UniProtKB/TrEMBL annotation:
Record-stated family: Belongs to the CTP synthase family.
Keyword vocabulary terms for this entry: ATP-binding, Glutamine amidotransferase, Ligase, Nucleotide-binding, Pyrimidine biosynthesis
Recorded coiled-coil stretches: none
GO BP annotation list: 'de novo' CTP biosynthetic process; pyrimidine nucleobase biosynthetic process
Catalytic activity: UTP + L-glutamine + ATP + H2O = CTP + L-glutamate + ADP + phosphate + 2 H(+)
First-level EC class: ligase
Name of the protein in question: CTP synthase (glutamine hydrolyzing)
UniProt GO MF annotations: ATP binding; CTP synthase activity; identical protein binding
Length: 231
């Protein structure tokens, strides 16, 4: 569904269609177009306990929606979309501002799974550190982490195990819901038929109401080294 359908005159009809879905996925992207509709999709997933998976911008709009409708910061936004907002939940980090033209956060980077009782820890088989590929410019403003935690957000993935001002948010969850996971990285960049991405696999299992099969599904990924080279 085009997210702009959730903003226009037929928004109620579009919302009814969303509520019939088994899962809601918001992918990455750039620019302001359709962002408010993406926030509506997040709100519907959160309020109606529909499995949600967000990637890159899909994580950023999830936090913007929570700030607007749970914390009460109605003007919460991203610096990319509204530089005048008093609550810029997403911004360009200060350490990146001095490299204009080269401030994209690109390539394979370590992601530290910092919460053991989390979806991230489960689907990555208890790993402390994973490597995932990135392609984004804007980051979550970590100065709002305390308020977001109080609103029920679990920060399960970070760029570093020890938090400091340059730490980047990599994954968030809402543990109170069946499945609500959003990541800043792009897990599809390292996914393949014989080694599928754990977040996508888990999201599909949740949408199919098969959450109890996460360990089994993720175990299938370990079969790859056992297969013959021609497989």
């Amino acid at each position: 569904m085009e997210s702009e359908m959730l903003e226009g005159p037929n928004a109620e009809e579009a919302k009814e269609a969303i509520l019939e879905c088994d899962g809601i996925f918001v992918p990455g992207g750039f620019g302001k177009r359709g962002v408010d509709g993406k926030c509506v999709a997040v709100e519907l997933a959160r309020r109606h306990n529909i499995p949600y998976f967000g990637v890159c911008l899909g994580m950023q709009v999830a936090l913007i929606e929570i700030c607007r409708n749970v914390i009460g910061w109605k003007d919460a936004n991203s610096e990319e979309f509204d530089s005048s907002s008093t609550h810029q939940i997403v911004h360009i980090m200060e350490c990146d501002r001095h490299s204009m033209g080269a401030n994209m956060h690109l390539g394979a980077r370590d992601v530290h799974i910092v919460e053991k009782n989390s979806i991230m820890s489960t689907i990555y088989s208890g790993a402390d550190v994973i490597v995932e590929r990135h392609r984004h410019r804007y980051e979550v403003d970590t100065s709002s982490i305390d308020e977001l935690r109080a609103a029920g957000v679990l920060f399960s993935g970070m760029s570093d195990a020890v938090f400091d001002p340059q730490t980047r948010v990599e994954a968030i969850e809402l543990p109170a819901l069946r499945f609500f996971l959003a990541v800043q990285f792009h897990p599809e960049f390292v996914s393949s038929p014989l080694d599928p991405s754990p977040p996508y696999l888990a999201f599909m299992a949740a949408a199919a109401k098969k959450e109890h099969r996460w360990p089994e599904a993720c175990a299938l990924r370990r079969l790859k080294p056992l297969l013959p080279p021609s497989a």
